[in-house]
Every structure is written in C-alpha cells, then in structure tokens.
Amino acid sequence: xxxxxxxxxxxxxxxxxxxxxMLLGSVVLFGWANGLTALYQVSAGLPxxxxxxxxxxxxxxxxxxLLQPEHSSRLRRWSGQGLALGGIVLGVVxxxxxxxxxxxxxxxxxxxFRDSPQTGVAFILxxxxxxxxxxxxxxxxxxAQWAAFISLMLLVTVFFGFAHQEDMFExxxxxxGMALPTATAFALVGWGIxxxxxxxxxxxxxxxxxxxxxxxxxxxFLMALLPPLLGWLPMLLVSGLTxxxxxxxxxxxxxxxxxxxxxxxxxxxxTEERLREQVQQEANQQQSELAHMVxxxxxxxxxxxxxxEINQPLAAVANYANACLRMIQSGEESQRLQEPLRAIQQQxxxxxxxxxxxRTLVRKQAPHKVxxxxxxxxxxxxxxxxxxxxxxxxxxxxxxxDAVPDVSIDVIQIQQVIMNIVRNxxxxxxxxxxxxxxxxxxSFVNKEGFVQVDISDTxxxxxxxxxxxxxxxxxxxxxxxxxxxxxxxxxSIIEAHGGRLWxxxxxxxxxxxxxxxxxx
Length: 520
Ligand code: ADP
Prior knowledge:
The chain has 15 helices and nine strands.
C-alpha cells in the first residue's frame, strides 16, 4: 500500500539527486576553468576530482534525470540509456588513462581523465545500474537498486577515510583514493537510482506509507545522512576542532537523532494503530446500523402480518366481551363470567406480547455517542433522503448557522430523526401543488443555549388535537403505508440525547418540527 503523494515525494527526491549531481559536476568544471582549487579538491592534501570525472557526472546526472519518470516516452528512455552507455565508456577511458594504456584519443589529451581507479570502476558500475533502470524490468531494477545500495555502503568506508585521513582503498591498492566531491556525487546518484523506481524493485517497502515503510524510510534517511556528514564535517570544522573531536560530536548528534526519530516513529505508529482501531469500531457500528436498517425494512414488510396477528386477539377480545355483556343482560351467574373474562385477559396479553416483540426488533442497542459536526450530519441525512427513496421533486433549503458548535451524538440515530421528519414533510406535501412545496432546514443555537434544528414544510399542517398525538406510537394517517412509530422513535432518541422534540403547526399553514440537543 503506498499513497501517490508519498511516492511522488520519493520520485522528486530522485530528481533532486539528478540535478544536484549535474550541479556538482558543473561547479567542479567551473573550479577547474577558474583555478579555484577548493571546488575540486576541498582541502589541501586530499585527492582531486578531475575534469573528466566532472564531465562523467554531467552524463550520469542527465541519465538519471531522463530515466527517472514512471511513464516516459521511448525517446527519453533511449536518450537516458545512451547517456548511461556514454558514462560506462568514460569510466573505461578513466581506467585506461590511469594505467597509461591510452594517453590520448585523436586530438583529446586524456590527462584530465586520469582520476582514481576507484572512480573509474564506480562510474562503470553506476552507469550499468542506470542502464538497467531504463530496461523497466522489476528484476533488473532490483539489481540496479542493490548495486546502488552496496556502493552506498562501500562509500561509507571512503567517507570514514576522509575523517581519519586514511583511505582504505588507497592502503589496499596503493592507488590514489577517490576525491571528496566525487564520493558525494556517487552517494547522490546511488540514492537517486534507489528512489527512481522505488515502488518496483526490492526496496519498494520504502514507498509504503504503512508501518513497515515508515520504519525503513527513517532508517534509510539516517543512513543517507551519516556518511556524507562523516566526510564533510571534519573538513569544514577542522580549523577549530580536531578530526576526532568532530567525529565524537557527530556520533553524539547521530545517537540523539536516532533516539528522537525512534520516539517520533513510535508516536506515529501509535496514532496509526489507534486510528485503525477507530475505523474498525466505526465499521462494526455501521454493520450494526445496517442490521438495524434491515430490521426496519423487514418490519415494513412484516407490518401487515403483525397487524393481522394483532387483529386476531383483538377480535377475540371483542367477541368474549360481547358474550360477557350478553350473559350479564340475561342474568347469568357472575361465576360463569370467569371463563370468558380469563380468555379476554389471555388475548390481551397475547396482543401486548406481539407489540413487545415488535419493539425489541425496532429498538437499537446502546447509542454510540461521538463528537460530530451537526452541519455534516444534516448534509448526510438529506443526501440519504434524496438517494434513498423515490424522486422527490421538493426543493430542500438550508440555513445552517456556522456558530453551531460540535455536538456529542449518536450520528446514525440523529440522522434517522432528520430523515424521518423530512420524509414525513415530503409525504405530507404530496397533496399540494408542486410549485408551493418546500422544505427548510435551519440550525442555530437557541436562547437556552441548546443547539436547535427546525424542519419546516409548506404542507397541510395539522389540527391542534392531532398535534397532541403525533408523537404517540401507532398514530398514522397513512393507512397501510404508515406504521405511526417514526415520530415516537424520534422523540425517544432525542430525549435519550437530553433534548426535546416538538411540533408547531396550524392547519393549512405547514408544520415545523423542532428538536434540541445539549452542547455537551
Ligand atoms: P408514519 O409516517 O408511519 O405515519 P410517523 O410517526 O412518522 O409515522 O408520523 C405520524 C403521523 O404524523 C403521520 O401519519 C402524519 O399524519 C403526521 N405527520 C407527520 N409529519 C407531518 C407533517 N410534516 N405534516 C403533516 N402531518 C404530519
């Protein structure tokens, strides 16, 4: 798993490495042209970076730049590979001229290519790596990455050599060592190769933005920083401090950096883990919501069945009651009334049991309160209302006050309330002409300091007596299409949140359902 943003960043680093190498090559050439020794030797007594090496780095940097993009034109790739081949040739020339096997080519005097053999070999290997990069085969990209990685590790020895003024290669081979700017440029090209197509080869773990990726990135970052610092700092600080002092200073700074990076990493991983748990929890909750919704749907289908079931005990109750009345009228003994009365009791209990079962089906388990932005909750609820049913043909207007603070609510439950009220409003307006239909949702902080949501419609409204009953269970004017439990559920949800739900309406003047929620 790697995010595009993160990958682009790594690719940019690779591009930056390419440019830096070309810049370094140009600076060294400038130094040669103007006799500025510091630019190609850094400090007296150190190996020199030859103009030949500088030219080769212009080749190498340009090749890295051309080969870096993920999808490039064939021409660009071929040009990159051509430059890489050029780099290999220059490396070979460097070796040949070092051992005086060839001293000149046509008019060209190869003295300026007489660099350390280490440099020549490094150019050949680096440019082979670059050439492989252009072949775009994961296995070859892996080879190029590994080669770059191993050379980077070898460079550590070279940089250590600068710190101690003792180059191991020089000691082993007796040949002159690599110059400090040269080693730096090779380190840059090495990282450039490693990162250029980092998502494809062995080191693709670096491109991951999951925990593993984070760890590797931090470790690699430190590794990239350490060798050049080891090489450069002693040169730069040498006037005031000895090499050993600079080195111990660097060691303590590095240890500190490592500890800080590890602590930061631990925090980052911790946050990620918590986030993941939260997402998991939310997913679980959504699942329970879904089950709840499914219950509600099933309930719709079951409604007629339940009505039928309740009808049976109610009809039986009526029959037994009639029988009792008749028995009383004909002067029967009160003793004989016992049997039908007991039957009435049983049937009434049966009806209430059916209702109880239905309520447990509708009631949701513990509310899951979270801090939420009410505006967002309203948007989502309206969106669900729009997408959830038949075509609405009713404009929904919003007046949401920015000053409304976040509220601690069960988001799904409050959405259910809003959806239920808006759906009722829309259904109530089906009778009136479509031009007059409109639902307005307002949110604000009321005088008592509660957050209030008003949902108004331009429908037929309701009479005073009916207003008293709308929140009672099973009150509906929709016949078989309604169950009359929506508003009753809404009221219990709002009251469980510590708020209030009420309606204001005049017949013919529309209705406004309002609910409040406490601010924490
Ligand atoms: P249902 O929608 O299943 O009937 P509710 O409890 O949601 O159950 O609504 C109860 C009744 O309240 C509805 O049948 C309807 O007659 C009335 N009602 C609800 N909202 C409005 C409204 N905006 N305008 C007029 N009457 C309404």
